[in-house]
Amino acid sequence: MKSGSVVEFRFSETNVAVMVSERPMRVAIVGLGTVGSGVVKILVEQAERIRRRAGREIEITSVIVRDPTKARSVSHVDDLIDTSLEAIKADDVDVVCELIGGTTTAGDVVRQALLAGKHVVTANKALICEQGEELFQLAREKNKVICFEAAVAGGIPIIEAVTQSLAANQITSIEGILNGTSNYILTEMFDRNVSYDDAVVKAQKKGYAEADPAMDVDGTDAAQKLTILVQLAFGTKADLKSFPRQGIDSLDLADLRYADQLGFRIKLLAVAKLHGQSLELHTQPTLIRKQQPMADVYDAYNMIEIEGDAVGRTWFSGMGAGQMPTASAVVSDLIDLAVGRAQQTFPLLDLWSEREPLPILPAEQIERRYYLRFHAMDKPGTMAAITAILGRHQVSIASCIQYEAEGKSNSSFVPLVIMTHHCQEGQMRAADLELAECKAIGKNYLRLPIRE
Ligand code: NAP
Ligand code: HSE
């Protein structure tokens, strides 16, 4: 609470004593795109609800954009639009809300805000993943707070769940669908017969995708979110290059159909599992049995399954992307700051702290079953060649389906799907090298893990 502010306690309609300050909390919003516009909508259109829950008014002092002439979906703050980032340093600003994305200017905004003595709210997982260590250190030095509920899984309060609601537990595993765009694209392709390219465009129009949608479809965005959860749950800094990462851009519609026939759905799954003292990490499209809750997550919804040593298994689900769900998370952070809750919890977060990090399990030692899809030459000896390679690396086959060429195709290549028994990633990688040299196999061989 700032010195000089007037604080009192009043009884709300539900007879709960709430802290009330006569002084509004003043916020500079940087970025008025998908998320920024949603935040403005809630703060302006629900001002009375927010005031009641925050114990004081949350007032927007300025809104900084790149192009002031652009048509906006909100008109409430037309008079406050500015293009100079100097506005974030103004004396009357308490909190800077960074909603521009990217890491260069966004990093400068957060640094400048902290140096000027402002708290920060951000939805930017790329920034936290890349510069979190430095920014959280700076925040601690300046006795300020960085709130980032919206950075992981959009509207789902997963940061609060991991850091507060499950604080009694040692988390032992986190598995989640963390990218709304990928999940939306997979749903459009499989359930609505939309082409991959059209589904990407639709995800962009709906405001789900990153400015560069490659970050969504190549698995980077989900991996960035996983590293943040891993920091919170295990105190480990995971470099994006230190674990397997694959996106949905490597899939064909046919793979979704083959998986379906085998009783699975394919989802982009981010996984962090504790094995003794080391962590198994990966973010990959994964075959999930249809009976599991995670297989039933559609559109831009996310789901995170967290297992703790006391609570057991828990599931969190909701919209993982989009304007209002993300704005909901940003505004909840603002309310936490206005009430003073975030100032108490932030110093206790296990984010880039002094704690000894857990080592990451070498990728070669990860043990799973795999789905292998080949375009294989339709001639004698092909199957023998493939199974010989797998056999040499002790990869055991659980089932195998060869599909006939579709329609009147003259192609000499036909789809071949093999499901393996459990084996190590290292065995599969060694087999991959030989499979790549096998003349009986076409180029776009695909290997995906299976979640039992
Ligand atoms: P967006 O629609 O592209 O909006 C970005 C906004 O930032 C625009 O208003 C843009 O100004 C402004 N901006 C960009 N560079 C700027 C600069 N150098 N100076 C001043 N303003 C600048 O992005 P978004 O979807 O709202 O995403 C914002 C952040 O939220 C990202 O970090 C993203 O990862 C995160 N996030 C997004 C979602 C989602 O569903 N969209 C969900 C969770 C988290 P102009 O309008 O003038 O161009
Ligand atoms: N592009 C991200 C997604 C936004 O689709 O999940 C939410 O972080």
Chart the SSEs and their pairings:
Elements: E1 7-11, E2 17-21, E3 25-30, H1 34-45, H2 47-54, E4 58-64, E5 81-82, E6 95-98, H3 104-115, E7 119-122, H4 125-141, E8 146-147, H5 158-165, E9 171-177, H6 180-192, H7 196-205, H8 214-217, H9 220-234, H10 253-261, E10 264-275, E11 278-289, E12 301-308, E13 312-319, H11 323-339, H12 341-345, E14 367-377, H13 382-392, E15 397-402, E16 413-420, E17 423-424, H14 425-437, E18 446-451
Parallel strand pairs: 3-4, 3-6, 4-5, 6-7, 7-8, 11-18
Antiparallel strand pairs: 1-2, 9-10, 9-12, 10-11, 12-13, 14-16, 14-17, 14-18, 15-16
Helix pairs in contact: 1-11, 3-4, 4-9, 6-7, 13-14
Bound molecules: NADP nicotinamide-adenine-dinucleotide phosphate and L-homoserine.
NADP nicotinamide-adenine-dinucleotide phosphate is lined by residues 30-36, 64-67, 70, 99-101, 105, 123-124, 150, 154, 207-208, 210-211, 321-322, 326.
Mean pLDDT, as a whole number? 93
Q: What are the distinct ligands in this entry?
A: NADP nicotinamide-adenine-dinucleotide phosphate, L-homoserine
Radius of gyration: 24 Å
Largest sheet: 10 strands, mixed
Strand percent estimate: 25-35%
By DSSP, the count of extended strands is: 18
Report low-confidence residues grouped into runs of 5 or more: 1-7
CATH class of the largest domain, please?
Alpha Beta
Do you know the CATH topology of the largest domain? Rossmann fold
**Portion of residues within helices:** 25-40%
Shape: elongated
Summarize the structure.
The chain is α/β, with parallel strands linked by helices and about 450 residues long. The protein has helices spanning about 35-45, 45-55, 105-115, 125-140, 160-165, 180-190, 195-205, 215, 220-235, 255-260, 325-340, 340-345, 380-390, 425-435; strands at about 5-10, 15-20, 25-30, 60-65, 80, 95-100, 120, 145, 170-175, 265-275, 280-290, 300-310, 310-320, 365-375, 395-400, 415-420, 425, 445-450.
